[in-house]
Amino acid sequence: MNSYFYIILFSTLSAMTRGLISVIDRYQIGYKKQSVLKVNFLNNLYTLLFIIIALFYINVNQVFTMVLDYKIIIYSVLVQIVAVGYSKIFKRLSIFESAIVSKIADFFIPLALFFTTGKINFGNYFISILTTLIVIIWVKKKSDLKTLLQGVMIIVPPLVIQACLSPVLVGDYKKNMDSLILFTVSTLILRFVVSFISMLPTLKWMEWKQGNKNYFNKLYFFRAILTCIAQITFVFVTSSNNSSIAWIFLNITSLYGVIFSNLILKESKNKTEIYIIITVSAITILSQLFF
């Protein structure tokens, strides 16, 4: 998996599938007005079905041991909190606005990583500040600043916390590909458990039973396939010795999300929005190449 061709291919596939996932979530929650907790639970349920199939081909005992590891539990909870956070902002914001809101986290993430790893690339941090300032300038021109600020408060703190703790939580499992795959499978299983537990307090059985025909559909099945593809390709490319190349393509997931949302959901006719996201993505790519 150290071949540049495969790294570029799989990192691009990972970014594109995650872009499509964001469009599906925006459609389910923002357009169909479905419950954030139910959508997340069903997304994880369908993904779990594929994981059960995968368990026939991997060491089940190791997976059972790993799901009891407090580090993986914390990591899974953080990932699920971020997923729910995105779902909440998808309820009120477009894909582009969501990408812009989450971009604010780039100002704080390098500092968070420095706190846990003791390392910081000042060249990359300068680019993070520059691209974040571009976003802030655009945000200031928006009339509904209150909604955007609420989105920032919802998604930025969990993104920063996740970035801060991930190196500590994942560090023991980056030894080889088998460990990373088992870690990924364990995380997906625990995400289902967390989403199920979080939904229980609001669960009304009769309401759930009546809503089954609306919630169980092919879209969840398709999203589960995309989730598995995104997770597997992400694990492969980020575990490579040449993973720095992969991040060039992984960091432009938002660009694919905006493109797909315009093609599928017809969310925006504003060319300025496209130019902004392209500019930020281009600066990100160039920064990875030269820094």
Structure description:
By secondary structure, the protein is mostly helical. 80% of the residues lie in helices and 0% in strands. It contains 14 helices and no strands. The chain has helices at residues 4-31, 36-54, 60-66, 70-90, 95-103, 109-117, 122-140, 145-170, 177-199, 205-215, 218-238, 243-250, 253-265, 271-290. The longest helix is centred in the N-terminal third of the chain and has 28 residues, at 4-31. The model has no long low-confidence stretch (mean pLDDT 80).
Low-confidence segments, given as residue ranges, are: none
Helicity level: over 70%
| Helix and strand run | HHHHHHHHHHHHHH
Give the biggest beta sheet.
Answer: none
Number of helices: 14
How far apart, in Å, are the first and last alpha carbons? 23 Å
Strand content: under 5%
| Overall 3D form | globular
Assign the structural class, choosing from mainly alpha, mainly beta, alpha/beta, alpha+beta, or little secondary structure: mainly alpha
Q: Provide mean pLDDT, rounded.
A: 80
Report the strand count: 0
Round the Cα radius of gyration to an integer and report it. 19 Å
